[in-house]
């Protein structure tokens, strides 16, 4: 167990990060079943919560199988963020609240939200303090190395977050200008760990069990956050745990691969209904197929799948194909 804050422990050092349109309840459940120690919800708009938007509220639907879980919100107005945090907690009974100050997407930063807040530490501090006053649960802040190469300010930003009331932080080693390209700077994460006394979660290029092990070792971070590394590969958490025990992390068999994909799809249909769930699951199915050698011929059919019955037919064809799991 890793203590991130008073009253909040991660089962281990490997955390499923928030990904908009990806880390829904079904995916969180599958990843927790595979060994994730803690998970985050999708990024949720605090303003939309204050408008009582039903679709936004549905993103916070939680089950015991997904715990411990952090509800992540975004916004830039202190009063709205405080109310949004309170509502997020009311709707989800989450184990903690996270403030997204790292999203690089223009539609977010253009409103002064996400990583745009890294350009104004005073404004970011007001948001953190407002949320801190609003909720009694552990509070974290997720941010980046900085806005661009000329303004890598993660260290003073982390100190500000701690002073403003954050119980722990998560640092992605890329700048906003990098988006998801280039290489994540581990030295920035290490510098943040040295600069603050609260726990630090490392993020960026955590694409495999070995990459996670190296990231923890190189940064001294308390935990590591996996995001893209878990897409189509929820078993990466089991591999991380195996490596942490000193064991060789073996790839799953083709059969295990297909069964996990089926488990994921069935959960989506149970939670959202087949009509809504099947179109949403297509990208996940393609990520699963992308992990298999020989899976390419099935991608067109999977990209168009609209019923659970058709999905099961494709899985039957996969079982009879000559497939191999990519290393």
List keywords for this structure.
globular; 45% helix; 8-stranded parallel β-barrel; TIM Barrel; 327 residues
What does this molecule look like?
The chain is α/β, with parallel strands linked by helices and 327 residues long. It contains 14 helices and 13 strands. Helix 9 links the parallel strand 10 and strand 11. The longest helix has 19 residues. The model has no long low-confidence stretch (mean pLDDT 96).
**CATH homologous superfamily name of the largest domain?**
Aldolase class I
| Order of adjacent strands in the largest pleated sheet | 3-4-6-7-8-9-10-11
Number of helical stretches of at least 4 residues: 14
CATH architecture of the largest domain: Alpha-Beta Barrel
| Large-scale geometry | globular
Number of strands: 13
Can you tell me the CATH topology of the largest domain? TIM Barrel
Please report the distance between the alpha carbons of the first and last residues: 29 Å
> Beta-strand level of the residues, as a percent range?
15-25%
Radius of gyration: 19 Å
**What percentage of residues falls in helices of 4 or more residues?**
40-55%
Roughly what is the average pLDDT, rounded to an integer? Answer: 96
Structural class: alpha/beta
Largest sheet entry: 8 strands, parallel, barrel
Number of domains: 2
The CATH class of the largest domain is Alpha Beta
Q: Uncertain segments of ≥5 residues (pLDDT<50)?
A: none
């Amino acid at each position: 167990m890793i203590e991130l804050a008073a009253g909040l422990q991660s089962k281990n050092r490997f955390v499923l990060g928030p990904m908009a349109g990806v880390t829904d309840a079904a995916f969180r459940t599958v990843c927790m079943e595979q060994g994730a120690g803690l998970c985050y919800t999708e990024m949720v708009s605090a303003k939309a919560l204050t408008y009582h938007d039903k679709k936004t509220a549905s993103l916070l639907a939680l089950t015991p199988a997904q715990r411990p879980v952090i509800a992540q919100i975004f916004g830039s107005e202190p009063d709205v963020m405080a109310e949004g945090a309170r509502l997020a907690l009311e709707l989800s009974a989450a184990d903690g609240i996270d403030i997204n100050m790292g999203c690089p997407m223009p539609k977010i930063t253009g409103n002064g939200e996400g990583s745009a807040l890294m350009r104004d530490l005073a404004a970011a501090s007001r948001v953190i303090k407002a949320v801190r006053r609003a909720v009694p649960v552990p509070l974290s802040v997720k941010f980046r190395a900085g806005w661009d190469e000329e303004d890598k300010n993660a260290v003073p930003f982390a100190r500000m977050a701690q002073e403003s009331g954050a119980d722990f932080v998560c640092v992605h080693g890329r700048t906003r200008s990098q988006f998801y390209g280039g290489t994540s700077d581990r030295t920035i994460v290490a510098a943040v760990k040295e600069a603050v006394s609260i726990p630090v979660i490392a993020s960026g290029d955590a694409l495999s069990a070995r990459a996670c092990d190296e990231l923890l070792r190189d940064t001294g971070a308390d935990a590591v956050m996996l995001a893209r590394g878990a897409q189509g590969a929820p078993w990466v958490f089991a591999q991380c745990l195996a490596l942490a025990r000193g064991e060789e992390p073996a790839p799953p068999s083709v059969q295990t691969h297909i069964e996990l994909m089926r488990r994921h799809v069935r959960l989506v249909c149970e939670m959202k209904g087949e009509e809504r769930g099947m179109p949403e699951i297509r990208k996940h199915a393609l990520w699963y197929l992308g992990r298999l050698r020989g899976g390419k011929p099935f991608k067109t059919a999977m990209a168009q799948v609209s019923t659970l019955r058709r999905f099961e037919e494709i899985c039957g064809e996969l079982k009879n194909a000559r497939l191999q799991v990519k290393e």
